[in-house]
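Table S5 (text form). Sequence records supplied for joint modeling of the two-component complex.
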Amino acid sequence: MDTLIFTQLHSGAEVNGYILIRKIGEGGMAEVWYAENKIKKPAAIKILREDLSLNINIADRFKTEADVMVGLNHVNIRQVYDYSTINNRPCIIMEYLEGNDLKEILDINKNISKESLYIWWNQIIDALKYTHKKGIVHRDIKPSNIFITTQGQLKLLDFGIAKVKDSISATRTGTQMGTLLYMSPEQVKESKNVDFYSDYYSLGVTFYHLLLRKSPYDNSTLSQFEIMDSIINKPLAGINNIKAPFKNNIVNATHKIPNKRTLNKISIKPPRPAFLLPLIIVIIVILGTILSLLIVDKINPLKNRIASNNHSVDNNIPYSYGVEQNTQDNLIDESYPQVDEIETEVDQPDPVSTDHIIEMDYNVIQLPPYRDNPKMYVQEAFDAFLSDINIDVKSESINTILQNFADSAKVKIKSTGTAYTIENANNYFTMLMFSNNIQKIEIVDIKYNQLNKVTEVSVIQN
Amino acid sequence: MYKILLFIGFILVIVPNCLKAQSTIKTLSNTDYENIKTGTLEKITELESYIIAMTDKAISHSIKQQAVSNAVKLFSSEDNIVQVSNTINTNIDTYKIRNYFNHIMVLGYSRVEIKWYDVDYYTDLHKGSDGKYYAVVTVFQKFEGYHGDNIIYSDITQKNIEIEIDIKEDPHGETFWKVALGDISVVQTR
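The corresponding structure-token record, covering 652 residues in total, follows.
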């Protein structure tokens, strides 16, 4: 039997061309050193603890996971450069980052802007979609594994390390608590058999924590069993205190049933110049005044027509929309009594529609094109349209979603039984936009062409 | 001789196709019949959701236009009409559907609430001579016009909506149905 000999790590030791400079952190699994190579390129080197290095299973898993991480190349994932050993201890050589992880940011109660949260949410989704497409699940999404660099770039840390930690936890007790708070129900029940939906859940809980500045479960008062019970059986308490658009995104991400979970990116409203709001107000006031004057001019003939009970409708007029239409002589039918017909002491309402000044929310539902899984993409689109998202957002999102549909795409709709009806996909999404009585849409079949554009979706609704 | 052959060919092509067309008119199972009846009422509810959006001052004009566009598609023709009444006088006015939708988008109230309830069949589905099914659905519409927080006009109107349902069997033996709304008439207003 070989005997491994460990010697104390020290500054100046070299691994794969990197010189250890100083230790910058130490945890239950490993210590982390700052290192530089000969051209001063910095790196962080995670070195497995001595005692754990003796465990062949853990050491092997550490290497296996490092192999996986080396293959990940995404701007929002900490890059792993190489795997090696130093003093017979396995180590991972990876990108050196300056900044803070989200746990540190939460601990110091640092203010986080709404825009930052939007950006971070989207960047994590980018990273997760990237790894999930490669079949890699993080399994340990939590604030301390999400790093924000000093340049504001989000980096997801420790991909694959969760499995190594599981191996370590199996030999210890009481080490699971920190991660438990962010675990998905299926992970709590059977940690080995989790898929990427588990990452969705953990991300939802992490952002719950970020937004409300507290974990959904108080581990200072609840037992581990109580927390596990809550994760499995109870909805996230206080979710209603989270505002849109995160509320729905977190609700969607933390569904108890894994395949019901969805992740939707949030589109970010570009910052407005400071002078814009006053300018808009001035323009609105001017336009409002002009329109009011115009409409007052047109109202007298309307009154005359009403008084003479002339209710003819000209069927040959071209169709047009909008406020102007009310001013056309051929659209004077006032079958609902207008305000000036009713005796009331209430002031006359401004007849000018203010629809055009409603501020649009540009948080378009952005679903990445699942080239390899159109069913999942379309299900996410339906779920998003049934969720409590602003109607403006839904409207803005239709074209984005339909980019993944063929032009003539149809939706085949069944309730129960064999009878079905068919809608054009565009009409169907528009219908969903306004519907408030459809609770659930389940895709039973999906067809797509060689370009991976959806051509037909069969759904059962409600 | 050529003409006779052409005529025979014509008969051979046309007659089987006519028979085939006849055979596609589906005899409904009870389950499908009930599902289609329910589905048709959902179309009525869909129309209500568009009308609610059209009268909602908080919804932008471009989105209302989407509602109008989808609502018009629910009808069998742009020439279908909607009757409108009120409690101020006994007049019943008639609009073409698109004009009606454009009209309710710009009502001069600060807020309008429209709610349909007791949506149900006024006459049951019956098969017409053309093989299509027809029925009349009745709805009660509660209309409230506000100025600020004050209701300055309200009424409840019973309306009948004609519906036309085309039911066929597709090549896979499944029942395919398509509903189209027809004219909407006023029964009573109070």
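Note: Residues 16-25 of chain B have pLDDT under 50 and may be disordered.
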